[in-house]
Structures are given as C-alpha cells and as structure tokens.
Amino acid sequence: MGLNIATDASAGGSIVTTRLDFLVDLVKKYGINWSRKNSLWPMPYATACCGIEFMAAAASRYDISRFGSEACRFSPRQADLLVVAGRIVIKMLPVLQRIYTQMTEPKWVIAMGACASTGGVFDTYSVVQGCDQFIPVDVYIPGCPPRPETVHEGLMAIQRIVREDGVKSSKERGKGLQLVIEPPQMVQSGPEFRESSLCERARGPVI
Amino acid sequence: MATADAIAALQERFPELNLLPLPLTRYPTGEDSDQLWLRIPADRLLEVARFARDDPQTKFEQLCDLAGIDYLNFPDAEDRFAVIYSLLSLSHNHRLWLKVFVNDPDPEVPSVTGIWCGADWPEREVSDLFGIRFAGHPDPRRLLLPDEIKDHPLRKDYPLRGKGERVAFDALTRESV
Question: A125, A168, A179: best mutation site toward chain B, by most B Cβ within 10 Å?
C-alpha cells in the first residue's frame, strides 16, 4: 500500500491518493474464491441410477442449496461443475468430451459413483472403464450409488479445491492439483458420548 | 380357438414343411411347457408369416417380439443362429413361436416388416448385435452401436471385454482444452 499526500498547490492540497493493491489481492485470494465456491452451478450428466441419487441429494430433504449448488444447469455454457453420474458407454463418451470442452473456465468435474469412476460391474466391450481416462476428474465419489451425504462430501471437497485453487484456469492447474483433501471429521461415539445426556434422552422410554 | 387349431391350419396349408410343434422349454418337474414353436425354413418364412397373420383360423395380428440367438457351443445344436418370432392373436387369444435357423457365412433372413411393421427396430437390433442380414429391410442401419464398429458383439465368439473399442478415444487433459 502506498500512501501519498498530494502537496501540489494545483491540487488544492486536500487530496489523498492511495493504492488498494492489498485489498485487491485479498479479494482475489479470498473473496472471489469464497463467492465462487458457494455458488457452484452443477451440470448433472446423469446416465444411470446415480442421477436419481443426485436428485435426492438436490431435493429438499438433503438440500444441496445449503452449499449454494441448487442451480442445476442443463447447458454446459452456464455450468462450472460437471457431475458425471452413471456409466459412460462408447457411444456416449464423445458427447461427454464435447460437453466438457463446451464448459467455460474455470470448471471442475466430479466422477460420481463406481461406474463413472471405474466402470463398476460393467466390465464389457461397450462401457468405458472410468471416465477419468478421457476427461480430467477432480473428485471421485465412492458408492453404488453414493448416498446424498456422500455427494455433499464430494461437493465440499470441490469447494475446498476452489478455495485453494479456484482462480486458476484448468490450463494453469495442469495435471495435478497437489492439494491434500482432509478426510471428514467422523462423529465419535466413545464411552463419554454413550454416557452423555444426549444418549440418555435417545434411549428414553419407547412411546 | 386354441393354439392347436392354428397349428392344424398351418400344417394343412403347408404340408411339405412337415411342421412339428415342439415345447419351448421343459420345467424341472419334467412337464413340458404348453408354449409351442415351429421350425420354418428361411426361404418360406414370408409365406408362412403372411398366412399366419391373415388366415381366420390363425389370425396372429401382433408380433410381440423378435429376437436372435447364437447357438455356438450349445449342446445338441445343429445350426449357428436362430431368429425367433413371438406371435400373439388378439382375436383368438393364442400364441405361437416361429424359429428360423440360419448359418454362417452370410446368415440372411427375409424381413417381415412388410407384414408386421413393428418388426422394424427389433430386426435392426438383431442385425446390429448378431450380424444377421434381414433382406428387404427398409432401413438397414445399425440401431444401438456406433457406426464405426464393424463387429457384432452378442455373437458368442466375440470377447466379453471387446477388441479395444472402449479405450480407442483421445484423452482430454486440462492442458489440451
């Protein structure tokens, strides 16, 4: 930050000029990424039962709008998160690649479920054994199909990537993200928890 | 009007074919199924099918299904492929199955799209996956697989994991887009 007080008489001696580089840097580093990670617009590329589970994750009971991702776009031009949900067959893969290239930067990809990540049980001539062979994938969600909580965990992993790495385009990010995603904190149900009043209440008389 | 009457009518009209009704399956209890099929030579199929649809005794107005079978390595099989026509008479409420057997080089069956127009896509599917040609089909393109593929994957001698179709794509990377 540079602070200059204009002493030139022609300026009237009452003007302070300053540079807000640090503020711009802060906004770039935290503000833009913060806004971006809380408004990821997914494009569900749903070809199988994982698509149904994604709908459950998006609907009111699990409510994906808590993470700002409720605006599902069915045009790749308006989306920045591609959710590959379901098996990809050889006739479908060129379509998927085309859709990925049509998405605007910056963009992220989730491979949702066993089939999209590895081909799953469909080890046959027509099913691609993991879409990550042919398009870059950021996060893999395990499950067959994954529970809505798992989908949200995958979305939060994308949010962590965006927070750290978001302003870069795909080209700058290159092959690896070099980013370690912390595993989620599990609920501890040790002896103290079981003795606690919360459990006491949960164990209460059955009505 | 039972299936037996329809079979009798077909036997009377085509005595030279020696039509013999056989049960489609045998249950574990030893009983035979009451669903019967007839073996039809490929060059007489259109005649038999047209008669089966139009004759007042048979009146099979509906072709429920059309499927292909590969009998390679099947015990006691004499022919390589079969095409199965599953017929239903809505007016008489009886059913009959026709089987046409064809063999390897150039398996060919006349198309029945002129008799039952619903045979259009099932015939395309069978010709796509088994490589059986349907002579006289109005639109003999592939139905399910991409046009670049030249094989017929439901044949038993086709490897389960294919011949490398599923890896024959260019990979998109973050740098290349």
Answer: A125
Residue B159: left (phi > 0), alpha (psi -120 to 50), or beta?
beta
Tens digits of per-residue pLDDT, B106-138? 899 999 999 999 999 999 999 999 999 999 999
- Whether residues B162 and A101 touch (CB distance < 8 A) is answered with no
CATH number at residue A89: 3.40.50.12280
Residue B172: inside a domain, yes or no? no
Put simply, whether the predicted model's pTM sits higher than 0.80 gets the answer: no
* CATH code, domain with B143: 3.30.460.80
Between the ranges A74-88, A176-190, B160-174, where is the mean pLDDT highest?
Answer: A74-88
Which domain, by its residues, includes B79?
3-167
Instruction: Collect all residues of chain A within an 8 Å Cβ-Cβ radius of residue B170.
Output: 134
Is B165 part of the contact surface with chain A (CB cutoff 8 Å)?
Answer: yes
- This model of the complex carries an ipTM of 0.80
Strands B94-102 and B36-39, how do they pair? parallel
On whether residue A182 sits in a domain, the answer given is: no
